[in-house]
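Known limitations

Files may contain more than one protein. Parsers should not assume a single record per file. Below, a two-record file is shown to illustrate correct handling: read the sequence, read the token line, then continue until end of file.
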Amino acid sequence: MKVKKGGRNWKRLTMLGLPSLVIIMIGIWLGGTSTESAATSRSSVLLAINGIEIPEEEFRMFLQDEKATTANYFSQAYAAEYNEHFWDTDFDGENPAQVAKENALSKLVQVKTEQQLAVQYGVIRSATYDHIKNQINKEENKYGAESLDGFQKYMVYHSKLVVAAKNKYKLKAVSIPETELRQYYELNKENRFKLPDRVEALVITLAEHDLENAGEVIPYLIDEISGGAKVDELKKKYFSQYGYVIKHKQYGSSEGKDENSSDLEDQLKELAYGLTIGETSVPIEISGQSYVIVCLERDEEKVSSFDEAKLWIEDVLQDERFMQQVENESSNQVMYVNEEWFNQIRMN
């Protein structure tokens, strides 16, 4: 981030796209004038984004969120050691404290732009920190934020604002021409609209320390299934004899909620998709438990038709247009920073 030096106490900055350049345009903010009385009236303001005053508490939340990322960057780029001198040490012209502050400032500009759009679309009355904080306190028990820290609560609430603003935007947006929708479909149909193969599989949870027997027992199980035995009957038999827990899974277009209910289920599904018909995985240990996956059937799914996909495509393109509006308005935000305060603020 390049900065051109401005005047004494005030910087006027224009954000040229995030995370883009911050360029100081004028040293004193008064719409081009520099009368002492007007400057004095702004002396208590540390930071303002498009006319919205940002208190130090709000900026510090964004700054503290940059702590780990900045430390990791300097560790990777310069093998910098994190110690009591880290934040005030220059590394090849880069200063950790300055980098963290500039990145925090860039993120805050985008967040305030999104909040201003939420005001514009009638989602919230004001984008000031006091109003946002009051709303968070009112709604905290609605989304289980009691265990979160202040910045996490702030960003959870902010995410809700963005979703609501985006939905209001879509209600007012002009419909996208079908020719544009179809063009998107043709460009993306093979990698975005091909449904995942339908895979029928058994997920077998092995008894503790039974990896040796699994290699002998599982083939008998597969033979019984090939011979027409019902899976429900085999579940009881193999649980009573070997302690195996067998689950019958349907992945793909017919899968249920259980197949996407946890990281474990996601990993098991990924393993199943790596098998061909009749193939059995080696025992896989996940979080201290061993599993074997058996692929029973596999059918290649088709590509969704344009008519099936076009509503989804329009939603995606409207999302993109909303985010483009955020980007455009972020690039036009005018920011005023008290230079003395900005230089003195330190990472906690």
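...continuing to the second record:
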Amino acid sequence: MTNEQRHHEELIEGISKQMKVILDSSQQAIYIYLDDIHKVCNEKFSSLLGYRSPEEWAKVEDSFPAFVEPSSQETLVNAYRQAMEKFIAANIKVTWKKKSGGTVATSVVMVPIAFDDHLFALHFIS
């Protein structure tokens, strides 16, 4: 593991601890994204996509094509870019791929957040 990968692991652990009460208590599905490898979600989001646990969901490394329906990919990428480059929140429609092969249509509120001088995208899914 490189120093950067180790640092990203530490960032995900840190933001998970900081956001624990929200991740555990929210009535909405939530995930926090640093990159395709470094991400965390709550139980509601992992079960929405058919995963046994947030840990199982987080282990999927090529997550963007695995989780996002092709028709929603451009919308999600554009919202992510706006969040990271211009610090603009977005309310978008996203269709996710379930582990079983089905799909689920959702509404996503994405906001940029900072933790330890790094930007993350925080997603609330309905």
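Parsers that stop after the first record will miss the second one. For reference, the second record is described as follows. The longest strand covers residues 103-115.
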